[in-house]
Specification:
Elements lengths: L7 H4 L41 H13 L21 H7 L2 H4 L11 H18 L3 E3 L5 H18 L7 E5 L5 H8 L3 E5 L9 H7 L4 E6 L12 H10 L3 E6 L11 H4 L3 E4 L19 E3 L11 E5 L2 E5 L16 H37 L15 E4 L1 H4 L5 H10 L6 E2 L8 E4 L7 H20 L1 H5 L12 H6 L13
Parallel strand pairs: 2-3, 2-4, 4-5, 5-6
Antiparallel strand pairs: 1-7, 6-7, 8-9, 10-12, 11-12
């Protein structure tokens, strides 16, 4: 059992020890009971630790070292594109004229910021093959909902409100059916065939007059490119539906293929994934949505437009689905994404995808002899392997993930997609060196060997982390969300 040092700040408390200094009060003292109603007051002062400034600094510094991110280690989280965030993005986002702009300033005073956002819109439209783009949505799932609401408005405007079903592959991101439901649609599942691609025969079966759209990721969640995408687009469009592109996997196609050219009508992008805005821990995010011309009148308002040499917000959009976020999107992330696009240029963006695909295929082929590979064709930016053979030895995919912690790596996505038994989804991204890839591969090979020779080593992992293996069922059912003295050790 290891001491949970995060809790020891309470045990180190000594009465009257002070870790702060405040300036002398230069205003008259006020009885707090005259300001705050009695029902909002504590009966007793909170029992906070009394520690020195040095102790508190060491406490929070120790906590910070326990975070894992792309700046501290390899983060091969499949489908989330946890790649390095270039620090030039941060420098630009902190330029005073960009960092200190206020959303309520008159448009005449913020023309530079409006120009940046307008240029970002046009760049994303060019990259995706769309006609217009909105930067309002705050994240990928928010972008999904926004795009689906525009599809819904389009069908209703055409007198086809009976189009109530959205088709979603069985390997789709979990947000796809959830977004469809929240947008008022019924999600219908289409099967994946033996090659890991959408089953076209089943797609034809589920398409009908009530089809509103097909939500698709290409390359799909298995890391495979849907080679029959144009035929799929024809099936959906012939039935009167729209094709929606989940852009979470766009890191595989930058500068190589465009959703608009594949037949998609709506696309969302994750700027915090593909375009290197920092993400994780719930944000910040940005999920711009692009549409073809026939859907542009339904875009969220206001729309940022260019009027001569100036830029303004157009609120006169009677068919708009309305505002979906205050102000105009997550401006700081938009600045970072624009910096990334301008820094990379067209050739640089293409190289991003080429290197991401190369890295993923290299890792997949090196791991193929040691784990089950459910789909043997070349992958795109990510791939899935299965721990079925390890499971037969008593080692689950969860155990493999826990053991990776001992090597200093964040585990890949596990048990997703759901249609692959004991699944591990690995995405190395383009930013990792061959040395890093080889070190991770060697760790995975060692774990596979341990599963055969010393399975208990993997089953009981992690061994070298601050906190050992938890009882996950107990943690889920009876979480301890605040400090309690009797739980100071684990």
């Amino acid at each position: 059992m290891k001491a949970n040092q995060m809790s020891l700040i309470f045990e180190r408390s000594k009465q009257d020890r002070v870790g702060h200094s405040l300036p002398e009060l230069d205003i008259p003292e006020t009885d707090v009971s005259e300001v705050i109603p009695a029902e909002f007051m504590r009966e007793e002062a909170p029992d906070l630790p009394e520690v020195s400034e040095l102790q508190i600094m060491r406490h929070y510094t120790a906590l910070s070292k326990r975070n894992h991110g792309v700046d501290s280690g390899f983060y091969p989280l499949g489908s989330c594109t946890m790649k390095y965030n270039p620090k030039i993005n941060e420098d630009v986002a902190r330029i005073p004229g960009l960092a200190h702009v206020h959303p309520y300033q008159p448009v005449e005073q913020v023309q530079g910021s409006l120009r940046l956002m307008y240029n970002l819109q046009t760049s994303l439209a060019e990259i995706t093959g769309m006609d217009e783009v909105t930067l309002q949505p705050a994240a990928g799932a928010h972008g999904e909902w926004t795009g689906l609401m525009m599809i819904r408005a389009y069908h209703e405007a055409n007198g086809e409100a009976e189009r109530t079903k959205v088709i979603v592959p069985d390997s789709a991101h979990g947000t796809n059916p959830a977004s469809a439901t929240v947008a008022g649609f019924e999600a219908v599942t289409v099967k994946t065939n033996e090659h890991g691609l959408v089953d076209l025969d089943h797609l034809r079966e589920v398409v009908g007059e009530d089809t509103a759209a097909l939500m698709l990721t290409n390359p799909n969640t298995l890391g495979l490119f849907e080679t029959h995408i144009q035929e799929m687009a024809e099936i959906i469009h012939s039935a009167g539906g729209k094709l929606y592109y989940d852009g979470a996997n766009s890191n595989a196609i930058l500068g190589i293929a465009r959703p608009g050219d594949m037949g998609f009508d709506v696309v969302h992008l994750n700027l915090h994934k593909t375009f290197t805005g920092p993400h994780g821990g719930g944000g910040p995010g940005s999920g711009p949505v692009g549409v073809k011309k026939e859907l542009s009148r339904f875009l969220p308002k206001p729309i940022l437009v260019k009027d001569g040499e100036a830029f303004r917000f157009d609120h006169d959009r009677p068919d708009s689905i309305g505002r979906v976020k205050p102000y105009y999107g997550n401006y700081g992330i938009n600045v970072r994404a624009y910096t990334y696009i301008r820094t990379m240029g067209p050739e640089g963006l293409r190289q991003v995808s080429e290197f991401a695909v190369l890295n993923a295929n290299y890792m997949m082929r090196r791991l193929e002899p040691h784990f089950d590979l459910p789909y043997t064709q070349h992958c795109q930016h990510e791939f899935v392997i299965s721990g079925k053979r390890q499971k037969k030895l008593g080692v689950r995919t969860l155990d493999v993930a826990k053991r990776l912690l001992d090597f200093g790596y964040h585990p890949p996505t596990i048990y997703f997609p759901l249609n692959v038994e004991e699944c591990m989804m690995i995405e190395p991204t383009e930013t990792e060196s061959k040395e890093t890839l080889d070190e991770f591969i060697d760790a995975m090979i060692q774990i596979a060997r341990e599963a055969e020779e010393e399975p208990e080593v993997v089953q009981e992992a992690p061994h070298h982390t601050v906190i050992g293996r938890l009882d996950e069922t107990l943690a889920a059912r009876k979480p301890v969300l605040r400090y309690q003295k009797e739980t100071a050790t684990v």
